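Q: How would the structure tokens look for this protein?
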Amino acid sequence: MSTTTELAWFKSSYSGSQGDDCVEVAASPAAIHVRDSKNSRGPQLALSPDAWAGFISSVSGPRSTA
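A: Here is the predicted structure in token form.
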């Protein structure tokens, strides 16, 4: 199993331009990891891929297919 230091972290495209309020996400086969980019050694949230998909669906809202 990979440690979180071996993960490839990606900063949210919605992060503040001043480097504040930033969230980073890293995916592994078993979990999606989320952390505060200002505190990379701090606490992290790990979600199952199904839980992450549900979260993204709920915050994305309906999408138009037109």
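The chain has a mean pLDDT of 82.

The two ends are 43 Å apart (CA to CA).

Upvote if useful.
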